[in-house]
Specification:
The complex is a heterodimer of chains A (232) and B (209).
Chain A (H helix, E strand, L loop, with lengths): L4 E2 H4 L1 E3 L6 E3 L8 H5 L36 H21 L3 E5 L2 E5 L1 H10 L3 H30 L6 H14 L5 H12 L1 E2 L3 E5 L1 H19 L12
Antiparallel strand pairs in A: 2-3, 4-5, 4-7, 6-7
Helix pairs in contact in A: 3-5, 3-8, 4-5, 5-6, 5-8
Chain B lengths: L6 E3 L5 E4 L8 E3 L6 E4 L5 H20 L3 E5 L2 E5 L1 H8 L8 H26 L8 H11 L5 H15 L4 E4 L1 H17 L5 H5 L6 H5 L1
Antiparallel strand pairs in B: 1-2, 3-4, 5-6, 5-7
Classes of the chains: A alpha+beta (232), B alpha+beta (209).
Chain lengths: 232, 209
């Protein structure tokens, strides 16, 4: 594709934490291609005896463990994404907030909150909350799912675009925390016993868990896997 | 183990390039996946440290001063960032108070204090005690710092409440806005070059040898 050479071909590995490029002395991966690929390093590494055993090499500069790819990247990413997806159901069905005004109490789910803003004429705010709490998480589920499936199949389809998509997910993902913070601020303020009260409800816990799980899922995924199908 | 400080590998696609010096404000992009490889820093260590100290001051203000005041039928109330996180701790959703407090208070606090610690020594070309750990933590903390989301949350809360009671912004909201800008300036930048401008302290084994 381009003149760029991958670290794997050069027999080097870059530290995930500090970015230092180090000589690859990690035990060889036992994959069918690697067995016949003379370019894959490790065959002359001094740790032949340790091959196959769980064993790690630390970055000589910052001490973080070195990996060619994040360990169990896809499996962890899938597990966290599915956990997020499961939490997303109670997050939407259960109320996130309880509001009482002059003795009249009502519970609101996330969507009800959005609709309330829309009906009261605050279209902008309704849109912001809708984007942060519905659109962003749903897009994230979809995008991460597509990225994981295509990387698992070592697809060479739209690699550059998929890489961009991944960076976009990392960039916007945490804005979903918005609803949790709104509930926090509102609940801290409105505490007038008897007159008016706002309290958090269980839905917000599930919603927060959705955000955290999907963030962890995106972090576990190693974007370099997108390019691994590209064998040059 | 051999290391190659003159090389840089793209974090997103594993392509390896040789590092070339950049002019001020330039950035190097990966040819293959278009991700940013590294950028030339506009800030020298002294300015960076100065902004970090400013962030620390603003951080204290954002945490001490109430962000919003409200009044309703003659009753008044106010909320700080801490009170907001604590408000979640009551009731069935209590566990969510922990990540909330982390993302708006504890993570920014750690970012500011770790950067301050590392930069204080980096001014003299030295690596602070615990430099390696601090640098790794700074990288790990970055995605969990959510001051900007918090600010938007406060604004949404203001609009939400202004429908049925009187709302006034407190000093804390301005401090939070400033903190957001300063944190973006100090923490969302390429910290890798701190490794290059600092000399490693000689470890005990090296001294013995």
């Amino acid at each position: 594709m381009t003149g760029a050479v991958s670290a794997r071909r050069l027999g080097v590995v870059s530290c995930h934490a500090c970015g230092l490029v180090c000589q690859d002395t990690l035990p060889q991966e036992i994959t069918p291609q690697a067995a016949h690929d003379p370019h894959v390093p490790g065959s002359d590494a001094p740790d032949n005896a340790d091959r196959g055993r769980s064993y790690h090499v630390d970055c000589p500069r910052c001490g973080a463990p070195l990996h060619r790819r994040r360990p169990n990247s896809i499996a962890r990413a899938w597990a966290l994404l599915l956990a997020g997806l499961i939490f997303y159901i109670p997050a939407n069905v259960l109320p996130v907030m309880y509001t009482s005004l002059m003795g009249k109490g009502s519970e609101n789910t996330i969507m009800q909150g959005v609709i309330e803003f829309w009906k009261s004429g605050s279209y902008g705010i309704a849109l912001v909350i809708f984007i942060a709490s519905v659109l962003v998480p749903c897009t994230k589920f979809l995008v991460l799912g597509v990225l994981f499936v295509t990387s698992q199949r070592r697809s060479r389809w739209a690699m550059k675009e998929r890489a961009k998509l991944y960076r976009m997910v990392e960039l916007v993902g945490y804005w979903s925390m918005l609803d949790v913070l709104v509930v926090a601020v509102v609940a801290a303020l409105v505490k007038f016993q008897g007159l008016s009260d706002i309290e958090p409800r269980i839905g917000i816990l599930f919603f927060g868990m959705v955000v955290i799980m999907t963030m962890l899922s995106a972090m576990s995924f190693d974007p370099r896997l997108i390019w691994d199908g590209d064998t040059e | 183990m051999k290391t190659f400080p003159h090389l840089v590998a793209c974090e997103h696609c594993d392509s390896v390039y040789e590092r070339t010096p950049l002019a001020l404000g330039q950035l190097a992009r990966c040819e293959r996946c278009d991700a940013i490889l590294y950028r030339a820093s506009r800030l020298d260590v002294d300015r960076w440290l100065a902004l970090t100290v400013a962030a620390a001051i603003v951080f204290v203000m954002a945490n001490v001063c109430p962000v919003i005041y409200i009044s309703f039928k003659g009753l008044h109330n106010e909320a700080t960032l801490w009170a907001s996180a604590a408000a979640l701790a009551h009731g069935p959703a209590a566990p969510i108070a922990v990540p909330t407090a982390m993302s708006i208070i504890i993570v920014p606090f750690l970012q500011i204090s770790l950067l301050g610690w590392v930069l204080m020594y980096a001014r003299f070309g030295k690596r602070a005690p615990g430099f390696e750990r601090a640098m790794r933590m700074l990288v790990a903390l970055r995605p969990w710092s959510m001051v900007e989301v918090c600010l938007l949350g406060i604004l949404v809360a203001v609009i939400k409440l202004s429908g049925f009671l009187q709302v006034a912004p407190g000093a804390g909201i301005w401090a939070t806005a400033l903190l957001m800008i300063l944190l973006t300036l100090i923490a969302n930048r390429d910290i890798h070059w701190l490794w290059e401008i600092t000399e490693p302290a000689r470890s005990a084994e090296e001294v013995q040898a």
